[in-house]
Specification:
By secondary structure, the protein is mainly β. The protein is built from 13 helices and 68 strands. Strands 29, 30, 31, 32, 33 and 34 form a six-stranded antiparallel sheet that branches. Strands 43, 44, 47, 48 and 49 form a five-stranded antiparallel sheet that branches.
Length: 1063
Amino acid sequence: MNALLICTNLQKHINDTYILVKTDQFLIIGVYRELPIKIYLLPFSQVKNSDLSLSLVVYDLYNIVCIILGSRLGNSLLLKFFPISSPKIHSCEKCDKSNIDDHVDHVQETNNQLKEIKDDIDLEMYGLSIFSENELYFRIGSYTFEVCDSLTNISPIASMTIGQPLNISEEFSESVDSDLELVGCVGHSKNGSLAVLQKSIHPQLVTTSELIGSQDMWTLKTNADEFHRFLLISQTDSTMILQTGQEILELDQDQTGFCTNEKTIFAGNVLSNQLFIQVCSDSILLLENLKCLQSISMKQFDSQVLACSICDPFGVLLLESNKLIFFEVHCDKSIVLSIIPVRSSLVIVSLSLYVDNANIFTIQPSTVKNFDIAINGGTQMHQKNEDEQFNKESEKFPSYWLALVKDNGCLEILSLPKFNTVFMVRNFSFAPVLLIDCGHIDSDSGVSESVTSTKSIVQEILFTSLDIDGKSPYLLAIINNDLVLYKAFRISYSSHDGHLLFRFRRELVSILMNDRNTINIEECETANFENVYSIHRKISPPRFREFSNIGTYPGVFICGPYPQWIFKSHKGTYFIHPMSIDGPVESFACFHNENCKFGCIYYNREGILRIALLPTFLNLESPWPLRKVPLRCTSHFVAYHIESKTYALALSNKMKGNILIKSTGDDTEEFETVSKGPRFIYPYQEKYFIELFSPTNWEAIPNTRFELYPFEHVTALKSLHLRSQERASGLKIFICVGTTVLYGEDFTAKGRILIFDIIDVVPEPGKPLTRNRLKLLYDKEQIGPISAIDHVDGLLFTCIGKKIFMWNFKDTKELIGVAFIDAELYIHSAISLKNYILVADISKSIQLLQYREDQKSLSLISKDPYQLRVYSIEYVIDGNQLGFLVSDSSKNLHLFQYQPDDPGSIGGLRLIRQGDIHIGSHINSMFRIRCKPAVYSRSTAHHITGMALNEKRHVTFYSTLDGSIGLIVPLSEKTFRRLQTLQSRLVQCIQHPAGLNPKSYRLAHMLNRLQSSPQKNIIDGDLLWKYTYLGIKEKNELAKQIGTSSFQIMEDIRNIEQITNIF
């Protein structure tokens, strides 16, 4: 990559200075252009090395020069560019550095002489020779670059595999489906690295204990200590008090002032961690350390406490009688209660307090009476003055707001402590795209007819901020057991006086959290629908758990059958990651202790209490938790060795190409080292080597590097099962490598087959990773380049150009030929399944071969007769059906099947094209794995049937050269027809970005016209998932149009997510 990226925008910022990026270097150009006619000198000065860049943008941000370096081979960077010293003045001729300072006095004189020239013709004819040597100078300053931000990039993905993480806790090691991670070769040259990805969070467990009967928990800090010193665990009718230190000890009732004979609803710190507050079902306690300062009985209200929300020093209680109690903790260490006037008899479902520390919430002043006047600006100055006076108090102190959701599906926001309604939304339970203030609601009778007809309920809400600075308020809600996020944004005018100048926009987040064991909203009858809220209020503990610092991240944890982490990013955004490795989580709390710093404590459904830490080696500010292991070289292939739990990598470094190859005439070559002088530009060539890496710390294992010959390239590397007498099963895993030696067009290309065994040796003292070594068992040159390798029934399968050979690795010493066959043109990829082999030709599509052990022969079963430039291939398994997935150079995916009964197959000689779709990226690597068998259902028979089907169904993952990861999963016929009909309706019924047509985009783009029509048997999952972004009304309308229910469609989508949630 030798393209030059030149930016001239710096001219207006730094006089006569330009920036240039060449390959991986920053160069500063000092331009000599004191004369307006020509540029006579372009001196270059290297500043520093850079990443491999594709684009360069410079802009001025508050008089600071910023540079954006876009890269497809590494991370994109945001840099700040500024000089660190005054420009130095250099003579045009070569001079000694010690004499440079002597020329400073001549600069102004020289510039004046150049400007006084009137005869440009002399300068044109004779150039700079008309001046003396001391009269010409140019300037180059000293500059520096400061990295402000970066965008993580994992493209291009050259190869991808799966492996077992070694840093996972022992309690999770028994898991079969979740104990996996993706490992890919990404980047190029100095940006080359290994990308280790996990879709879900795998916490690092500190301790585990069994605790049956717990429902909720909280941790408390003392004012003089940064650690959590107390743990409160709420049970059915009591509370357990634990003291946390070096050990966790249970305290007796007489040792503490906490209430232990009642169920605790909430516990936390108030007054900047000076005091504790414990809210029980029948009382409220205020404590200092273990001393109870005040205890207030709730029996005076003839009702028990259902829920509590606190923002220091205020709090709100929700009673079973639908009363709201507001309390404030005063500085004199006392609690004052007051009843919030409820203006309707509607049942309050959930509530959440929010503190606006950034003072971004503003209220429409009552002085603006006319919308047109406010828009035209006639009263802008008067409005501004009134607005400032109205919000004068809120500018000095934080403001507090209370969000309520009622059983008629309405959302209401109150200002505290005056309890004025400042925001009201009808039909919030419909999850609309936009929440618009409706002012007030006149209806005050039970559940509205629209809510009953759509059968949607709001289980819980949380009003919080998902950024570090608190300037981005978000409203989180669980509606019909699915997570919905709304982001607040400012508006310039509100038609309702005294209401917020804000609206809420729904985020495009699809988190399906439904539990099959919970209430089925679709099956609720209209007559009994009003009782759903009362049932939910009694059986559901709060699922939203805010935390301030877990692993340096603040955020929200969502309990439930499918736990989720929402991390507040330091860049002002948020990232959502699931935690499916430990099953459903009932309760959660942050936990900071000497033995568990900035960790967490949670309680799962199996009655296990765990104290855990977040993995520190992963970057959580990415769509998937990611770890990039820098290699500083290009990685081409990666293979996982299961027995030693190590990774074998094929890597390459750039080296100067100063070796000349000459032929001696007897089929041998001679190498000659060439030296052309210091000004000669040598070409670069790749020097390949094989090396082992340990997933313990992702470092290269010492003394495991195997260097290849010059001009030798690795074209295939796999971990294969070959026949061996050393194992009782008769098979042993070896690292097999196929290479190609390219000396040029005058020489015949050759290759080698290398077979390695990873052996265990006595590790060196202090180096535990040295227990693994590479042992070369076989090394022999072949008649042609080795383009693909695989294993079939313990035999080695190799492709040498268009010739295919089967080898028996006898006694781990030599390869004995077993069978061979000729293919079409040039085979570059091959995969096997039992005794079937699927091979991909560089131009002639795919072929299906079969090896027969009794006849020791390879035979062609079927092939695709059309031309197709194949990139990668993989199998698709759905029970007893087998398909062949192919990616091509036009960024398409094709699905073929062997169907000898089809008339178009000509008796099975041709493969039948069953589906095709345009992906939009070059797919370079694919692998398959069994679907996750865990499918929950209320019916035991359905549960067993679903598990049996998924155990025989495989999901195929693919990676692209653009750094994206996708999957293909087979569906049942009934599910496919239902979702395909929904896809056709979504194309017409929803808005698409820039008005583009996804139906046209997903049609296969073919270089050559096919004789058959496109096979639209692959559903666009990206389009289908947009159904989850719609509101409840829109979902029901679309489902009604295709003759099904919204619940059934969401069940299908949820089932797809669950069976593909492998990592």
